[in-house]
Amino acid sequence: MKTALLTRVRSWEFVLLVLVVVLLLVAASVVPGLTRPFSVSTGLATFAPAALMALPLALLVIVRDIDISVASIAGFSSVVGGLAIQAGQSVGVVVLLAIVTGIVCGAVNGFFVAILGLPALLVTLGTLALFRGLCYVLLGGTPISPLPEFFNALGNDNIPGLVIPWAIVPFLLLAVVFAVVLHRSTLGRRIYAIGGNPETAHYSGIHVTRIRFGLFVVSGSVAALAGLINIGITSQVAPDGALGLELDVITVVFLAGVSVLGGKGRITGVVLASILILALRKSLQLLNVSGYTQGIAIGGVLILSLLVTNLSQRLIGSVRDRRKPVLGQATQRPDTPVAS
């Protein structure tokens, strides 16, 4: 039990927890209005789409893939939903069309990456521009508003009697689902196996291509849900919806301790990293820091998280290499004396 406790204390999630507590305490004493219910509620709602998209992206990075087109998928899906609103469709049809659009976009990425074997970074960089361009082609420069009350309530209202907005509820629910799948299921073990060594996983009977393709589809569908939440927050459907959120999403994933080399990462880290970036964003906003400067800060956090993760992995590797000879000598049995 003592060994397990020491392992947890030394884990990256524990470091993140300490950073979150320290940042919240410092920000609460320095930033005026941070702990007000309105600030807490709006901060949670505004960051909800990015936190939501970070969940499936973490799984993609664990299997050595990445999807930097998630924000463009969110924007494109919301535009399709907006056109359905403009055509007088019901809320159910709007949601269905948006989710299907996200699934198709994810399937496009999965086809090129998992099936054709093209690099995920280059493919999703291309679809990032493709899906965003389609937003402007379909919608032009004129936003769609007003929206049905369902979306306005989803993006701006709180759960009755609480300071928790409805916008963050999908993230809270899906975080539990993703945690169970990744850490408590056979599929989760297969995801880690693929990230550890794709060839070994393939020869072990794991359907590597199918799982990678499925993760892209899941990422697209969750991005579409994030896009619907985002239009509720902004109260309009615009071609630049969710633009720039990919920076926050990617920062959350790598700050969470998900290894860029694959095979490592936990949903707990994603949740803690989301809280950390949320607190940083909201603090800078209340201090009247411009959006461009906020982007510089988030970019710095991304680079720092990659640097710390890389250095920690090298340190752990060097410690293990030093311990191997010692352990090898300790396990050797002394030669049995030969009887005369």
Describe the structure.
- With 340 residues, the protein is mostly helical.
- It has a domain at 33-243: ABC transporter involved in vitamin B12 uptake, BtuC.
- It is 75% helix and 0% strand.
- It is built from 14 helices and no strands.
- The chain has helices spanning 2-10, 12-30, 37-62, 70-86, 91-115, 120-139, 149-156, 169-184, 186-196, 198-203, 208-234, 245-255, 267-286, 291-331.
- Helix 4 runs parallel beside helix 6 and helix 5 (91-115) packs antiparallel against helix 11.
- 41% of the residues are buried.
Overall 3D geometry? globular
Strand content is under 5%
The stretches of 5 or more residues where confidence is low (pLDDT under 50) are none
Overall mean pLDDT stands at 90
Features:
single chain, 14 helices, ABC transporter involved in vitamin B12 uptake, BtuC, mainly alpha, 340 residues
Concise account of the structure shown:
By secondary structure, the chain is mostly helical. The protein has a domain at 33-243: ABC transporter involved in vitamin B12 uptake, BtuC. The protein contains 14 helices and no strands.
